[in-house]
Amino acid sequence: MTLEQLRIFLAVAERQHVTRAAEVLGLTQSAVSAAISALEARHGVRLFDRVGRRIVLTEAGTAFMAEARAVLDRAETAEMVLEDLAREPRGRLRLHASQTVASYWLPPRLVALRDLHPGIELRLTVGNTTQVADAVAEGAADIGLVEGEVAHGGLHLQVVARDRLVLVMAADHPWAGLTEAPLAQLAACPWVLREPGSGTRSAFEHWLAGQGLSVADLPETLDLPSNEAVLSAVAASRRLAALSLRAVETAAAAGRIRSLPLPGAERPFSLLTDPRRHRTRAMQALIGLLAG
């Protein structure tokens, strides 16, 4: 079994398609098929079933995916350790960040890192807070950046910035001319919320609890998976939302929405690392920039 065979297996397994995997890998379809066949023959196990022109993972193939991914993650870590022997920080950094952090806070800092250390290759994946923490804990990410509470107790958490939620409404909403949010009326209004698992949703639920409320107390809610989706829904309706101040600044400046402060709705932006993993010079350079 070789690392190349594992890479090919994962590419096919993730796409359930030999041709598409071959295109991504820059290989011929016959080379990909041969690698899968050799892997199956060497270990006497069928990883895929051929169903007409399609292929689907077998039960054995599904079980093997997690192990194959873990081996490749460890191989990539070993490669980064070797690359880290150079004086200048270099090598790959796999970053996973929650949407608000990735869209509004992180980009200028990544530009600054590349300007300082052009030998560092950055790979950014965006997800919600739960997905980011899982990626760091499972070794799929070197560094995570989130704005919500983290359930993985084995991770090291470092606060690197502060943020706050604001109440968001359409520019022609009846409350648009107010200077303070009418907190006593919030439970009587329909809402658009970020999806469960997002840092924004977690922070809003925590803030609601401080008001003696929960999401279940809101009369009508709609869950959407991104800040922009929530903003679009709010701008076209009488619904309310709670989003990061950073996420609404552009829409507010354009006159699409209005926002009001939510008292006490502050939250941290936190950097996540796994203390069991080697901290490369590239990681140290980024952490120093973000925490500085």
TL;DR of this structure?
This protein has about 290 residues and is α/β, with parallel strands linked by helices. It has helices at about 5-15, 20-25, 30-45, 60-85, 100-105, 105-115, 130-140, 200-210, 225-235, 245-255, 280-290, and strands spanning about 50, 55, 90-100, 120-125, 145, 155-170, 190-195, 220-225, 240-245, 255-275. The chain contains 11 helices and 10 strands.
Can you describe what's shown?
- This protein is an alpha/beta fold and 292 residues long.
- The chain folds into 2 domains: 3-82, Arc Repressor Mutant, subunit A (Orthogonal Bundle); 89-292, 3-Layer(aba) Sandwich (D-Maltodextrin-Binding Protein, domain 2).
- It is built from 11 helices and 10 strands.
- It has helices at 3-15, 18-25, 29-43, 59-83, 99-105, 107-116, 129-138, 199-210, 227-235, 245-253, 281-291, and strands at 48-51, 54-57, 91-98, 120-127, 143-146, 156-170, 190-194, 220-224, 241-244, 257-273.
- A hairpin with a 2-residue loop joins strand 1 (48-51) and strand 2 (54-57).
- The radius of gyration is 23 Å and the shape is globular.
- The mean pLDDT is 91.
